[in-house]
Amino acid sequence: MPPDIPIKPLRRSIWERFSVVWLIPIAALLIALGVAWQSYSQRGPMIVISFESASGIKAGETVLRYRDVTVGLVEKVGFSPSLERVDVSVRLDKDIADYIDNDAVFWVVRPEVTTQGVTGLDTVLSGVFIEGLWNTTPDGLVPYHNGLSDGPLLRVGESGLLITMRAQGTAVLAEASPILFKGIKVGRMGKPKLSDDGTDALSEAIIYAPHDKLISSATRFWDTSGFSFKIGAGGAELDFSSLASLVSGGVTFETIVSGGRPVADGTVFDVYGDEANARASVFSDSSGPTLEVTVVFDENVSGLSAGSPVEYGGVRIGEVTSLRGLIDEAQYGDSRVRLLASLEIRPERLGLEEGTTPDEALAFLTARVADGLRARLATASILTGGLKVEMLQVADATPAALERKGDGLPVIPSTDSNVQDVAATAQGVLKRVNDLPIEEVMGSVIRFLDNASALIGSDDMKNAPGQMVGLISEARGVIGSEAVQKLPENLNNLLASLQGTTDDLRKVLGQIEQADTVNRLLAAVDAAGAAASQVGTSVQGVPALITQIEALAAKANALAVEDLVARSSGLVASASKLLSSDSTQALPVTLHAAIADLQSVIAEVKTQDGVTRLLKSIDAAGAAATEAGKSIKGVPDLVAQLSAVAKKANELPLDQLIAELTRITGTANTLLASDGAKDLPATLTAALAEVQAVLSDLRKGGTIENANKTLASAATAADAVARATTDLPKLVARVDNLISQATTTLAGFDSKSEVNRDLRSALRELQKAAEAVSSLSRALERKPNSIILGR
Amino acid sequence: MQLVDMEIAGQSEHLMSAREAGLVTCRRCARVWPMARATCGRCGARLVSRDSKSLQRVWGWWLAGLMCYIPANIYPMLQTRTLLSTSESTIVGGAIELIHHGSVGIAIVILVASVLIPVGKFMAIAFLALSVKHHRIVPPRHRHGLYEIVEYVGRWSMIDVFVVAILSSLVHLNVVASINPGPASLTFALSVIFTMLSAQAIDSRLIWDENRTPKDDVA
């Protein structure tokens, strides 16, 4: 046992008393705290997204992506308090938290196989993920969101015009079907759904920028899916726009009329079944305010119905909304039933500006009615006998105004309707045509033409033109001769002279009138009395005068007057034919001179006093008579001279002219007398007679009756068409057969065809492959070591 | 001589320790020296009858190990990325999943290696450290046996880490499947290391010091 060694407790420093090992847990603690602090400070906020179902969403695994970048992780999948929805809690990245504001939308991306292709294929391997979309302005975090069942149409990084499609007629809205423009995909349809009231099928659609500029309010969409099959005069026609759209559906559009306004997001467009409907819709757009008016028609004709068009200047401006009978004895004075039609008019169709209110349109109509605008019934369809209401300007319309009646609707005045009983009229026309003696007419025409050709071919006819030309040239020579040319001028002169003479006479008479008529008459009577006394004194000489005159007359009588007269008449007859001869030309001049002399004589008479001059004249006459009596002996010489003149005149080459004329006339006569010419009128007459007969037939029948008969024939024709249409069912049956065959073919394409089978088997293979990969991955997931262990 | 005594003493009810005999053993070369001697005359090592800081070191390592053990259980041990999905599994979660898939044996191995042994080690070390002061409960013999077991088992606690290391290096099929160690593997390895150090820090001679007053202990 060693000696007890005194052990002095050492005073140790704190470093010696405590082990350095304590640094390790302290460091670990610091690190842990640091990590905890860091992760806490880095941790983003939590948001809750509520989904209908959480298919494929796994807590801690499913991520939230924005532009394909992971920005959050699902931490918890739970239920809403009422278990109606699934609340998915997502831990967000801190950086983007502020952007998750009210406009943020979330949806689950799942693999999807559509006719348009496969989307979300990456999720097959990675599992579903939540895709988020929000704008680029941070407006603060909103912690609760409703998740969408489908992704929004406008995906990340896309811009465009969001519109709403409404199916019309046979159009079918197919989800995700392309919107094509001239074969280029410019947009996409969204998921179709029913409108709130269940009357329309609606679908969101997007037109990607920059194609959204193509869309205006005048744009019309139509369905290009499927195919159309037509049999018509042009043969059979099978039409489909593209194989893709045949399978998957598609919508295309066209801006049919100009002047559309740009549209905003959310505008509703109709999708029509085919292009024709779409184009027609431009003129039957059902939007905009309408103007209600009524029309009372005197006729109560069937054929007008609600929905019948209302046209103005050929443009459809509205439609008939309702019809009812109207008995208004107070207004019309009888108790006949009249037709009261209510019309719905679209103001913009009247050519008024866009946005015209119904009141403005009514003012417009009122003005037009004052100018003669009237409504009438008109045949809309010949075949169906449907009627339409036609607005037209009646030139001589009885004045009327647009008035408001008891029920407050303005009444447009009506005029006589333009309804044809087309069937009956057409029948008559066709019957008439049927009855025409076409064969006979043809025969007559043929005969006529034969005769005509014979006539024209005859020698006489051939010569006729030459002779005619000669005749005409000769006639022209005569007419063109100087004398004839001057004749009118001379006649003019003559007439002028005569006129002058007449004027002078008138002046004389005027002077006579101007003179103090009564006094002058009295004076004249006095003078006459004086004269009478003078006459009385001189009356003794009168018998001598008379005897002288008598002697003169006797002498004159003794003259060869008859011969003279005969010759004179011959001369006159010749002269009458000789107006153009030189002597004739001189005649007016001579006459003129004579008249001038006469004029001077009268002028002298004018200057002298009437009665004395008369007396003197009478004396002079007496003297003249005596002189005449004396000079009458020279008359035979005169007559002889005249005879000579006449003889000379006779000797003139008139004979030749006349002979020539006679010859021409003879030739013409011969021509006209020729058989051909004779036949010509006969043939013509016969033809005309037949034409006349036709016309007379027509006249006899009476136009309306004939037309009626014709239309009756048309009716027979229509009957024939009707009989033909009885065959139509067979045709339709055949078409049916064809279509059913087509359907079978398509059905075969649907279920049996090899393509489909291949496609299906391919898809099955794909499915199997996916299943295999899936099971492999699942196995790996469960037993990672199975790769090593080989199990 | 001493060794023989000790072996014999092991079977007796009480035996005298070197300290009671006023001796001190060199822990490097096992030469026994008188208590007063500061350094070993043979190998030059420092001679300490009892390591006064032993318990501090034990508790320090123990605490560090425990701190590392918490994230080792919280964070995923293994990241399995396959073609279709990425899955991360913690130690216990993975074991439970294995049980669900029917691989109970593997689950038990993992649970034993990763949970039972580490937790047992923590408890054993804590017990040993505490029993130095309150040693009446269990005889020193049994406690020493426990210490030996803890020392021995400690190295095998790394089995999880080894599995992860091997898997990550082997299963590296790029896209189809790959396994990466998760953050827990690091902390688990640290925890194992710290507990091993903690176990090693126990001065097993303290087990044998009975009837020791706290004052003596400090001395």
SSE diagram, text form:
The complex is a heterodimer of chains A (791) and B (219).
Chain A: H1 14-17, H2 23-42, E1 43-51, E2 63-66, E3 69-79, E4 86-93, E5 105-109, E6 112-114, E7 117-119, H3 122-126, E8 129-133, E9 144-146, E10 160-167, E11 178-181, E12 184-194, E13 201-208, E14 219-223, E15 228-232, E16 235-239, H4 243-248, E17 251-255, E18 268-272, H5 275-281, E19 291-297, E20 309-312, E21 315-326, H6 329-332, E22 338-345, H7 358-370, E23 373-379, E24 387-393, E25 403-404, E26 410-412, H8 422-435, H9 438-457, H10 459-480, H11 482-514, H12 517-538, H13 541-558, H14 561-576, H15 582-607, H16 610-631, H17 635-651, H18 654-673, H19 675-701, H20 703-752, H21 754-782, H22 786-789
Helix pairs in contact in A: 8-20, 9-19, 10-18, 11-15, 13-16, 14-17, 20-21
Chain B: H1 2-11, E1 23-25, E2 32-34, H2 54-74, E3 78-82, E4 86-89, H3 91-100, H4 104-131, H5 140-154, H6 159-170, E5 177-181, H7 183-201, H8 205-208, H9 214-218
Antiparallel strand pairs in B: 1-2, 3-4, 3-5
Helix pairs in contact in B: 2-4, 2-7, 3-4, 4-5, 4-7, 5-7
